[in-house]
Automatic annotation (TrEMBL):
Residues 9-85 form the HTH rpiR-type domain. Gene3D superfamilies: Glucose-6-phosphate isomerase like protein, domain 1 (3.40.50.10490), Winged helix-like DNA-binding domain superfamily/Winged helix DNA-binding domain (1.10.10.10). GO terms for biological process: carbohydrate derivative metabolic process. GO terms for molecular function: carbohydrate derivative binding; DNA binding; DNA-binding transcription factor activity. SUPFAM superfamilies: Homeodomain-like, SIS domain. It comes from Actinocatenispora sera. This is Transcriptional regulator.
Length: 288
């Protein structure tokens, strides 16, 4: 019997917001609460507004849109969901002693726990892997902050999948590359779209879908603007405790997805890996 994995605070908040028809501003508020899930039950309306970069009345309207009388009622619901007491004193002494860097690492630990919760149901990743493994060539899109993850994925994917094409530049050339991949027989596009959500990435997804490609997107949340544009969405939260975002969970998800692609075509994977190892040994690529 498979032992159930306790849901993380961020997963519980995602479940609270899932399926709601939210405006772009309300999505930013929801995403900010998810990103700060461990302490979301302690935040005031003004603190939430500051985190999301919106006005305080927008936070009140957000709470009402979710069916609550106001933000205090929503905060009470959040506390109930993530198991906090109602006194606001549940923050531990250890948490209080942590410095800024430690809190950022702890937040990333929570993000990985949220990703683990998502992976408890393997069907979304397996469906994405089946779609991507059948595409030849396989274009992989990652612009701006998502570029390193796309290139990391592409580097290893090229060892097991024929003709992987990493698309990391924007402009008209990006559309050329998508059209060339489609003409060469591509059936799917893998995209990595992370905050602050490049407009060119969303435009490229629309071009790909218009061309008949199935779009699989790794993004930070089901509420990401890229989610609405994609056929299959794999969410992995992004850390926002430091000056620049932390992409630990999206990177892990990229490698999990690649593992699933390998498992979808085991004979091809084994054959190509053996070819690479033989070539590497012949050329002396690595230190013995």
């Amino acid at each position: 019997m498979v032992e159930s994995v306790p849901e993380s605070p961020s997963s519980r908040l995602l479940a609270l917001f899932a399926g709601q028809r939210l405006t772009p501003t309300q999505r930013r508020i929801a995403q900010s609460l998810v990103e700060h899930a461990p302490r979301a039950g302690y935040l005031s309306a003004s603190e939430v507004a500051e985190l999301a970069g919106v006005s305080q009345p927008s936070v009140t309207r957000f709470a009402i849109a979710l069916g609550h009388d106001g933000y205090p009622a929503l905060r009470q619901r959040i506390r109930e969901l993530i198991g906090l007491d109602t006194t606001g004193t549940a923050e531990t002494t250890d948490e209080a002693r942590r410095n800024e860097w430690q809190r950022a690492v702890a937040a990333e630990r929570d993000n990985l726990a949220s990703l683990s919760d998502f992976l408890a149901d393997p069907k979304p990743v397996l469906a994405a892997a089946a779609t991507l493994s059948a595409s030849r060539p396989l274009p992989v899109l990652g612009l701006r902050a998502a570029r390193p993850i796309a290139e990391y994925f592409g580097y290893f994917a090229a060892k097991v999948q024929p003709d992987v094409r990493v698309l990391s530049g924007g402009g008209s050339q990006l559309v050329d590359q998508l059209e060339q991949a489609t003409d060469a027989g591509a059936e799917a596009l893998l995209t990595f779209v992370l905050p602050r959500y490049p407009a060119e990435a969303l435009a490229a997804i629309r071009v790909a879908r218009d061309a008949g490609l199935t779009v699989v997107t790794v993004t930070d949340s089901p509420m990401s603007p890229a989610a609405d544009e994609s056929d299959l969405v794999l969410p992995a939260p992004v850390g926002s405790q430091l000056v620049f975002d932390v992409h630990g969970a999206p990177m892990v998800l990229a490698m999990v997805l690649l593992q699933a692609i390998c498992d979808a075509q085991p004979a091809r994977t084994q054959g190509r890996l053996e070819q690479f190892e033989a070539s590497a040994a012949r050329r002396g690529l690595f230190v013995p």
